[in-house]
Design brief:
Blueprint: H1 2-21, H2 25-37, H3 40-44, E1 57-60, E2 63-66, H4 83-92, H5 107-110, H6 115-127, H7 149-158, H8 172-184, H9 188-191, H10 239-248, H11 260-266, H12 273-284, H13 301-306, H14 315-321, H15 323-326, H16 344-347, H17 352-360, E3 362-364, E4 374-376, H18 385-397, H19 408-416
Antiparallel strand pairs: 1-2, 3-4
């Protein structure tokens, strides 16, 4: 009886939101903005594919899953979904056929999205998105791990009940930031460590200090700590600097890379200044995980490089390949080439991201707020594993940075399995 009552209440709640929203132009526009905030485009659009037609491979520890077609095509997409069925997928992780979605779909975070926002998203995807007759692709997960019934057990165990993350402070900006980060932005999906069951260890700041403390390596990158730690988190960032980063992907001292590039391109650059500032304010409110390690502010690295002293491992490689852009003082060039001195990415325990970018290079794309793009070449073709290890160690320990040394074996593993 309780289940029937709950489902009836859910249906009534969602239907009421739909009536309030309707399929008018205003609802569609609100839904489009919310889809941007949720970064739906980044996962549900394949490289070179049509918007929201699916097909993008998402790596997991047991194989790749492929994002589905969420255009209103009735055969391959979600055109046949009612509002209630759409809500079941988005916030509950349950497909139209009753089976459970892979948690690559961040429904544990979307469980915090309001009824009204779900209704507006539905209006947008049904009326504001072009239908595409693109068939969905099966996962690459081998049997028996590909069976879906165990996913229901995972959902019952780890997915939270649908409940808006109601504010607990009188600061509306802080609560707006919390709602966007914890809900639609699903930042914890990448930036929160996961447990043995591949569940996020915390789903909000109220669940403990695991929340947004940094993720495990995936596809050759590590999602960084977003808490207030000064050495590897956001403790040394100002709120305005963080808002600027979300807007342009670059600041006076750093630049976006890896999957976060898609977040800036598809999502954050399209939000309002007020929402970006709210996100930044909320992230800056998160306390550090632990005490910062001692940092040698009186580093001799700048003097060493200015004197062309290449007697230490990695120094010669840095001078020959890195110094022209990142300079002898490690400060780079503002909003063009990121600083290495004091960069929190370099101070993290896991050097995967840094090794990856040295091997494969990277590209900082332009956007509507910062139109010029810049690139860094990859050096896998010209540097040995030992040379990469030496130069990564050099910059992780230079200019007062406090990163751990890197071994040639770590480089070899990443080169073989990027």
């Amino acid at each position: 009886m309780k289940t029937i009552t709950l489902l009836a209440s859910l249906s009534l709640s969602i239907s009421t939101a739909a009536l309030a929203s309707g399929n008018d132009d205003a609802a569609i526009q609100r839904g489009e903005y919310l889809a941007r905030a949720g970064d739906c485009m980044a996962c549900h659009t394949a490289k070179g594919g049509k918007p929201y037609a699916g097909g993008l491979g998402l790596e997991t520890p047991i194989g790749a899953v492929y994002a589905t077609n969420i255009t209103p095509d009735r055969e391959h997409g979600i055109g046949g979904y009612s509002l209630e069925e759409f809500d079941q997928a988005v916030r509950h992780g349950i497909r139209k056929d009753g089976s459970t979605l892979y948690p690559a779909m961040p429904y544990p975070s979307y469980a915090k999205v309001t009824d009204q926002d779900v209704a507006d998203l539905y209006a947008y995807f049904m009326k504001g998105v072009q239908p595409v007759a693109e068939a969905n692709r099966d996962s690459d997960i081998p049997w028996p791990m590909s069976m879906r019934w165990p996913l229901a057990v995972w959902r019952w165990t780890f997915a939270p009940a649908v409940a808006t993350d109601a504010g607990s402070t009188p600061d509306p900006q802080l609560e707006r930031g919390r709602y966007l980060v914890n809900g639609l932005g699903h930042c914890g999906s990448c930036h929160t460590p996961r447990g043995m069951g591949m569940q996020e260890k915390s789903l909000s700041d109220r669940d403990g200090d695991h929340f947004l403390a940094g993720g495990a390596p995936l596809e050759g990158w590590v999602a960084k700590n977003l808490r207030g730690d000064t050495h590897d988190g956001l403790g040394s960032w100002s709120t305005d600097e963080l808002a600027q980063f979300l807007k342009t992907g670059r600041t006076e001292r750093t630049a976006v890379f890896a999957s976060m590039t898609d977040v800036i391109q598809h999502s954050m650059q399209h939000l309002t200044d007020a929402d970006r500032l709210a996100i930044a304010s909320y992230l800056k409110s998160l306390p550090p995980v632990g005490p910062a390690p001692a940092i040698n502010a009186a580093s001799s690295t700048t003097r060493q490089l200015s004197n062309m002293d290449v007697s230490t491992p990695g120094a010669r490689t840095y001078v020959d390949n890195c110094m022209a852009c990142h300079r002898s003082d490690g400060r780079g060039y503002a909003q063009v080439f990121p600083a290495l001195a004091g960069n929190p990415v370099l101070n993290g325990q896991d050097p995967t991201s840094l090794i990856h970018i040295v091997l494969a290079g990277g590209y900082l794309p332009g956007n509507q707020h910062a139109p010029t793009g810049y690139g860094m070449p990859g050096f896998a073709w010209r540097l040995s594993d030992q040379e990469v290890a030496d130069v990564v160690t050099f910059i992780r320990t230079g200019w007062g940075n406090a990163g751990n040394p890197v071994t040639a074996n770590e480089v070899a593993k990443l080169r073989a399995n990027p």
